[in-house]
């Protein structure tokens, strides 16, 4: 596994997932909050399965529980710090209220882009950190990332469509956001390409980052979009699907 391949996998996973979500909204006019909420719930379950049944067992096989826990705590801290940055960047987007060229919908859409871009950084790093696991692990995590990006693409496309932005223009965004994940994946690969001790910490870090994203973003977002039992059922189905995928 080389740095170029890792970057391309990260870029493709994010870019394709977002593009599919955007196209689905424009072509099929997806409005069902239940469906979107279940998509977020299902990908939450898949990510939990990958952490519990693949990433953590691989890290713990090195018999360094202390390093795994350190990595998890660092990953959670990274998630907290990036969350603290997001509100300041959102304020920058909304600062110029006198600008008549941008509607409220456009500002909302760009706020979503900033949020997605920021949380692409730890996700890309997590994928890069997995470069020392098996190719099957990387492949499965990339598939989950792509699936997780589909509801994000739908959510992102809603305000743009209301602002009457053409689909062709909007499809530039997945390339941009995929590029951010590709760069962060390359950084994750470089930082973990040293010693076995650092690799164990990095795997723990990847697990911590993903856990934080699932617990702080995906599961709450699924309940926010559709606060019904089916979002919980979708999460459980996602875990079971992940278990079958990883066996």
Care to describe what's here?
- The protein has helices spanning about 5-30, 35-60, 65-95, 105-130, 135-160, 165-170, 170-190, 195-225, 230-245.
- It has about 250 residues and is an all-alpha fold.
- The protein has one domain (about 5-245).
- Helix 2 (about 35-60) packs antiparallel against helix 8.
- The radius of gyration is 18 Å and the shape is globular.
- The model is unreliable at about 95-100 (pLDDT under 50).
Computed CA radius of gyration, to the nearest angstrom: 18 Å
- Give a short account of the largest sheet: none
- How many separate domains make up the residues? 1
Which class do the helix and strand fractions yield? mainly alpha
Number of helices: 9
Distance between the termini: 22 Å
Anisotropy-based shape: globular
* Proportion of helical residues: over 70%
> Spans with pLDDT under 50 lasting ≥5 residues?
97-101
- Range of strand content: under 5%
Give a topology summary.
Elements: H1 3-28, H2 33-60, H3 65-94, H4 104-129, H5 135-162, H6 167-170, H7 172-191, H8 196-225, H9 229-246
Summarize the structure.
It contains nine helices and no strands. It is mostly helical and 247 residues long. The longest helix is centred in the N-terminal third of the chain and has 30 residues, at 65-94.
Which keywords apply here?
mainly alpha, globular
């Amino acid at each position: 596994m080389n740095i170029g391949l890792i970057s391309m996998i990260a870029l493709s996973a994010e870019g394709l997932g977002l593009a599919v979500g955007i196209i689905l909204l424009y072509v099929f006019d997806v409005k069902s909050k239940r469906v979107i909420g279940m998509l977020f719930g299902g990908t939450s379950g898949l990510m939990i399965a990958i952490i519990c049944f693949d990433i953590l067992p691989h890290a713990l096989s090195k018999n360094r529980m202390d390093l795994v826990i350190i990595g998890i705590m660092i990953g959670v801290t990274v998630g907290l710090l990036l969350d603290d940055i997001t509100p300041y960047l959102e304020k920058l987007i909304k600062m110029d209220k006198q600008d008549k060229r941008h509607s409220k919908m456009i500002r909302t859409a760009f706020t979503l882009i900033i949020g997605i871009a920021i949380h692409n950084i730890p996700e890309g790093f997590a994928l890069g950190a997995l470069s020392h696991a098996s190719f099957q692990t990387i492949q499965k995590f990339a598939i989950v990332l792509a699936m997780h990006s589909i509801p994000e693409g739908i959510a992102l496309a809603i305000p743009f469509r209301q602002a009457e932005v053409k689909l062709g223009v909007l499809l530039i965004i997945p390339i941009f956001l995929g590029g951010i994940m590709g760069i962060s994946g390359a950084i994750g690969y470089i930082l973990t390409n040293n010693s076995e001790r650092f690799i164990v910490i990095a795997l723990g870090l990847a697990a911590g980052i993903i856990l934080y994203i699932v617990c702080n973003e995906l599961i709450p977002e699924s309940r926010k979009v559709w606060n019904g039992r089916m979002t919980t059922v979708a999460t459980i189905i996602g875990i079971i699907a992940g278990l079958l995928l990883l066996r």
